[in-house]
Amino acid sequence: MLPRYLSHPLRLFWIGLMLTGCTATPERPLRTVDMAWGERQLQLNQLQLWQIEGRIALRNGEEGGQSGFHWEYQTERQRFVLSGLLGMGGVELVVNPAVTQLTTPEGVFQGGTASALLTGVTGWTFPLEEAIFWVKGLPAEGVAIDSLLLDEHNRLQHLQQSGWSLEIRRYRQQGDLQLPELLVLEREQIRIKLKINRWQVNHEKGE
Q: What is the CA radius of gyration of the chain?
């Protein structure tokens, strides 16, 4: 059953996920099948419809906290939800070609990029524009790469990009894919740990 609080566009987004064959494939033991980095990039770039959920830990200097998160992405559209971020209550960020909107218990805010809006309203930094690629194990498109290191299986392990340092500490098997499960992002005094407990991806190749 779809949640009642979802707006009409988000309800259509959820219905689309169901109709395109998205399934939460049970996690399988990791198969370390080597493939060339270029081939892996092509495979991962086909993922244009996905959902993840888990836990996020944020720290900025002496301040820090944890939250559950749920993140849905479909080309040019996303919904990012933080549950109980440092006692603020639920925070929902919706991005589509028409609007970037953040809803908090204090009100509804619009404008700017998704990451700038989140930082401006909550005070917490998370690079959403780049992270939509990083969570798939890819460098962000259209942004210079300062350094990139692959592991022994040609999977992204370390990345310096957009002033951030990314380390992917663990992968998981999701169907035929190996996808990140534990990521650590750092920039100056900011440190973010992202633990993905559940992946849901589409099976429509090339969409």
A: 17
How distant, in Å, are the alpha carbons of 75, 103, 164, 168 from that of 85? 26, 13, 22, 23
Helix residue spans in 26-180 (DSSP H):
37-45, 114-122, 128-134
Q: What is the pLDDT of residues 135-178, one digit of tens each?
A: 999 999 999 999 999 999 999 999 999 999 999 999 999 988 99
Q: Is the pTM of this model over 0.70?
A: yes
Residue 106 in tokens: 């204090």
Which of 39-70 are b and which e, b meaning 16 or more Cβ less than 10 Å from the residue's Cβ?
ebbebbeebebbbbbbebebbbeeeeebbebe
How far is 25 from 20, CA to CA, in rounded Å?
A: 14
CA nearest neighbour of 123 among 100, 91, 98: 91
What fold characterizes domain 8-201? outer membrane lipoprotein receptor (LolB), chain A (2.50.20)
With a cut of 50, say whether residue 108 has pLDDT above it.
Answer: yes
Distance between CA atoms of 205 and 45, rounded to whole angstroms?
Answer: 10
